[in-house]
Amino acid sequence: MAGDLVIEEGDLEVLRDRTRDLSSRLQSVTVATAGDYISSGVGGERARGAGTQRRRDDRRRGHGSVARPGRFLPVRERLDQRLQRDRKRCCGDLPADRPRRPGDDDGRPATQDGGAVMATWADIQSWDHNAIIEAEDLIEEKVREAREIIADLEHAANDIRSQGEGPDRMRQRLTEIQDKLDSRLNELTEYALATAELHGYVSRVVAIRESAYEVAAELKETIPESGYVMTPPMELSNNPDRYQKYRDLHACIKSAVDLATEAETTVGPRFKALADGQYSLSEGRHSESAGLANDADPSWTPEEVSVWWKLLSDSEREALINKDPEKYGNLDGIDMASRAKANDLVLYGRRDAAGNRIAGTGLLEQARQEYNELQAEFQAELEATRGVVSPKLQELGRRRETARIRMQDLEALDKALDGRSDVSLVTLQAGEPGKNVLAALAIGDVDNAEHVATLVPGMTTNCRDSTALNLGYAYNLRDAAVSAGADPGNVATIAWLGYDAPPALPDLSVASTAQAEAGADPLRKFATGIHSWRSERGMDVHQSIIPHSYGSTTAGIAMRSIGKDVVDDFAYTGSPGAGVASVGTLGVDKDHVWVSAVPHHDAVQGVGTDGDFGLDPKTLKGIGHLSGDASGAKGYSTYGLNPVANHSSYFVAPEPGKENHALNDLGEVIADVKER
Hints:
It contains 19 helices and 8 strands. By secondary structure, the chain is an alpha/beta fold. The chain starts with 11 loop residues before the first helix and ends in a 6-residue tail after the last helix.
């Protein structure tokens, strides 16, 4: 290695040989082949050829071997022809320029800027996420190679300890080579991140495209090239469930086309900038992380984050966690061990060079101090006014209550973590004052376990009241998976309290899907982050989502836009509504979608309105029915007046000598041994 070399006056030829060797290796760091993968992933064989020709043209213009897949998507003229033809076929003499009526969700492709269509249903039929993954892997390999070369050259430069004209020329030559390598590495890094972003889009488009075909098959419909499927008028009144499925089909088509359009407008310019040599530069070899961005960009997808995080060294990751733990404790796409380490610093305080906690830097300590100060101030004002309620006292009371809620949320997390080496805090978002703390607690090694299951709880969930309860449920799910045959060291379960769940009635927010829709995207990104990090390391994971109550609607909505192969099994429990009208809409193999429903005292099941909450999952065609027999669970009731007495019995441990068959079946799903 270059680091073992000491350069003296007579040894310059040795270093010249080494630099020539490194320069030769530089020439092999190319992404030419990756361009073909990308082109084939978004445009089929025709695009593959176009990408190759563009690459050749780029080389002639001096852009090295950077390939641009070209435009992902054809122009509007083709769509217009298809759309008019299909309208004629379906609707007779209906005018092609008939304006959309308010609420006319007919599945016609999305438009931008007053009608300029950028993507069509036909355009995305050849999209292939596997081709993008291959391109991603190839480019990352080249980035790692380039970073190794730079490190070698850095060692070589440091080894020139002699003085004189010859050594000075050698230092200058090394600097020139390093500068070229920096430029090349910047190029490769941007290519890797752009490809990772494209991977996220293509994966989601492919999954939604397949969902559309699943729903169409259920309806015995054929999706034409235009993507325009008309809802038969009689479906409006005669068959509400089929009408809801048509809505799902139209939504799938529109979502896929919209995402493809977004890919064109978001990722397309990144590839064009690369081809034109106008991409933004990283910090270079003298940065904290040579050739890579020193910090994660807030706009990055989980796929981009995973690529970047994997390319960093362990010391670089450690530095980032210590620098900004609030950010890295919640960054989807990095490993859960790093997230837990960061959240430990946030909750309990930063550490000094000796490893000791720095007083006043922990969120829990700060919350307690704030509450105590406000309590003292409130008490002083109460005594000063002799109990008379004043505007100041009211304001102090409001602030004290806000501080109390935050303190109790954090204390509940602290209690859950205390003395449990197998539990880690993998999400911690304090948010604004007055908002619930959001969190996720993992049991086991999420980064390495073969089976990972995420429990998504429902209404009334918050950290202060629900942490212990849902952590207990997560333990029971893990134990059930082990009982089903999974190795104890290969199962990890997560209690995901990562969205703002509505309170129970009489609060009317529980009757709306607004909070489910708000929580869907964070859940999608969380699950995608687990999958993308494992994929970056070449480690497969069987990932299950086990949603409950209002959380099942949240999860159902999230699954409508999940990427291909991210989630392997999905099981509704105590669901007010599936968030969809068809199993095929969920982005999971339809043979791995399940529902569990107890027969007594779970009035939440199917209570949501079909138009908003989706259909009752028990009624979904093709869904797998798990046991609803939770009669062996502690506290299970077949009598009494409480209509929701058994609403959470799916996750409750059994009485001694009894079985909770509903819990057992969920364990089989998590262990990937449940059969139809």
